[in-house]
Write a structure and sequence with these properties.
Length: about 290
Amino acid sequence: MTCHYCNEEAVAYSYGKGYCREHFNMYFRGKVRSVIDKFQIKGKIAVALSGGKDSLALFHALHFLKMDLIPFYINLGIPSYSPASEKACEKICHDLGYTLQKIDLADYGISLEEHEKPCSVCGTVKRYLMNRFAHENGCKYVATGHNLSDIVTFALHNLANANIMNFRGNRPFLPGREEYNMVAKIKPLFYLTDKECMNYTSINNLEYVKEKCPFSREAPTLKIKKWVHAMEEEMPGMMLNMAKSFWRLEEKMDDEIKLNRCSICGYPSYGRICKFCRIAGRSKGK
């Protein structure tokens, strides 16, 4: 099959169209650019790198879109997995001419292995540290590699568990709140699927960590994502329509969410003390 836009051989396929390397890169970066343009993203962006295909694809695309980027990596202290992830992040930063900034979870006295539900703790500490890093480094935004498949999967998982509070964060842009030391959050891969991100990393020879996090191998979200992808095969466009619906629902929830500033660290919290400070044991005696 040839590229839909030229006579070159197609190396990737999306929604029934074949793409050569050049035109797939244009397509992929165009989808990222559409989020950047829609929300008028201008200024310094802290890019959260995990070593996985999505965050590396995002960073690579934003680099070629000539955005002002500061890449950073959070070392979660997971044996074997974290060192491999950090190595992948260091390589892409070296190749593109950046210095990778690093955050070590152990510096905060937190070990995921000590918790009964490490995935829940992991999500909390990453959200906190990403926002804190961006704020302390003068960034207007923090960008994450959540793609369309992730967004729909996480939303369905939270709905299935009546977890309405964590239902927030599904849209591609969440404005910052200076009064709470909260920077804006962007998901530039909002319109791109797992498969498209995989194709982008393959076409551009990006070396990412292929092994799964040992804590997430039995995660229920994996089954939900598999089901979502199967439905997408039968009804192309379903995932995007669902994501847009979740986006609209979230906007209606905005007025009902009341934020505070954590009495210990000063960052956003739904209560008097944020979950990160409770996990880190900072709330003792408070």
